[in-house]
Amino acid sequence: MPDLPQAALIDGKQIAETIHNETRARVDALKAKGVVPGITFVRVGEDPASQAYVRMKEKKAHDLGINSRTVVLPAATPEADLLALLEKLNADPTVHGILVQAPLPHPISETRVFSTVDPRKDVDGFHPANVGKLLLGDATGFRPCTPAGVHELLIRSGVETKGAEVVVLGRGNIVGKPMAAILLQKAPHADATVTLVHSRSRNVAETCRRADIIVAAMGQTEFLKADMVKPGAVVIDVGVNRVDDPSDKRGYRLVGDVDFEAIRKVAGKITPNPGGVGPMTIAMLMSNTVQAAENLTK
Ligand code: GUN
Q1: For the domain that residue 270 is a member of, what is the CATH number?
Q2: Would you say the pTM of this structure is higher than 0.85?
Q3: Residue of 60, 122, 124, 291 marked catalytic
């Protein structure tokens, strides 16, 4: 029996490496001018996933020659202390980028925290000024790293977005909403017809089947099934879900928002997970950090 056709894999690891090489050259150019780009990570509490994410980001910053430092605060830190720390980092000329790892422990307000970071140092793109610029199509702001990474994946793997039907699954502030804002702009590599699908949407499967491109970012294990995907569509899996697995030495394994094995027989292109969106998020964070240093050096 002939093999069933399989979707082409969108190699996020490889594309992220290409971006890191570009970023490294920009770091070297800044260093030649006497400027070492610097990022400070702020982590509050001991959430294991946040610990792992910040460790990975720090390691990559170090690899690229970016100065990085992590400030760890106890989970019970009063919000006012965290805001005071951010004001200090805002005023520190050696710090070009500031990243406060989410989620933050109750009762700290993420809105107040993200609004306190100087927008010029907001390499996460979460400050309301940067959110507004993204919606307005003003490229002088910072874009959130995960949707910016998905956008780069589409561009660098030759996926046409102009006029395309895009379905974004999930309306979160970190991925879904900014993803929609990026792809609906009247601009090259955008110009898509975007539908945002969420937990109250009707006819989800039918809506997905219309899509030329599906970005799954709702945080539900293998939510997207093969019968929800049009043959030849492009499928991007942003999901990182922990599933109990006693056979794994950690006691869990990570599973995406798409049923990869079934969908790869239907889709035209698909991201592996891991190895798809994850490395791109870090690549965009490093690129944003160097951008912040370049802007603040002018
Ligand atoms: N938590 C999950 N994703 C992100 C992100 O992109 N940035 C920050 N700061 N926290 C996160």
Answers
A1: 3.40.50.720
A2: yes
A3: 124
